[in-house]
Amino acid sequence: MTDCSCLEGLAREDLKGMEPYDAYYAPGIIRLDANENPHDFPTEVSRFINSQIGPQFYGRYPDPLARELIADLSGYFGSGPENIMVGNGSDELILNIMLAFGSGKKVFIASPTFSMYALHARVAGAVPVNVPRGPNFEIDVQTVLKAAGGDPGIVVLCSPNNPTGNAADIRDIEAIAGSVKSLVVVDEAYVEFGGESCLPLLDRYPNLLVMRTFSKAFGLAGMRVGYLLAHREIVRELLRIKQPFNVNSFSQLAARSVLKYRELFEDRIKAIIKDREYLVKRMESIPGLRLYPSVTNFICFKTAAPALEVYRGLLKDGVMIRYIKTPEGEELLRVTVGTARENNIFTDRLQLLLGD
Ligand SMILES: Cc1ncc(COP(=O)(O)O)c(C=O)c1O
To answer: Cβ(166) to ligand 1 under 6 A?
Structure first.
């Protein structure tokens, strides 16, 4: 190996402690760790997608502004196209938000929550500040206002929240948006499964931004399409730093097709909600579990046994869920609602593991 001492001092010091994102990859395992849609993608929709691919489709760059997809989203939400932006997954949008509005500032994050907010804040040279949620993971409005009451920065609220599964009261979000000088980002990645959307607040609070994704309810995690709705001035700032061809042609087409056939997905969403209720019942019958109420496609829980051991035990048994150590030091487990078969295998193995 070539001596690399000449690389010393080149990398950013402030990112030294950060680990690269490492999604576990294990073919053949039951994956209940990433909150994906477990249902097969509808054949009717994949047929339609294939029928739309012409001879120029692969050789040309995608539309950089995803105009047709944005027009469809605009029709879907009744908002102007100038209020919408799409990204290579909402992950990319989170980074863009941090780069455009956060660099050199503070990002107040209602915690525990999705880890990418803090990671992207650091990448953008912003300072993430975790603002602890209440005992049942509700947003603590007073603590958020106290923390974010000063100079403008960004406040990030995820609702329904990953990993805890609960939705915010939109009056709390309104109270925050109306009081702080910061950009208030509400991540509604799971809102199709439950909880109240903040979209109606957009007209009243120009500092509010609502982010969503095609990855969860609409089963397009592999295509990487997220979108956001906000005041046109906010969208304009974000477009300044957007990668030119961030959403590829296939993904734009897939997202448009999902919108066209959305009633097929609505049936799947209903099925997931029904399966979640069944999974909750099964889990409630296992002693030593504390379940948190969920309006999403996953369930957050604690075990009397050490959480990391439970996670590892299930993994050894071929079922992957998520182990989370929160910034506040709490240990949580999170299981995605899978197919009925996967949910049964998970609960059977969990029960065996916990020795009941
Ligand atoms: C709350 C939340 N926001 C955003 C994302 C990322 O979604 P996307 O696939 O659109 O990047 C996830 C993915 O797990 C999430 O849980």
So the answer is: no
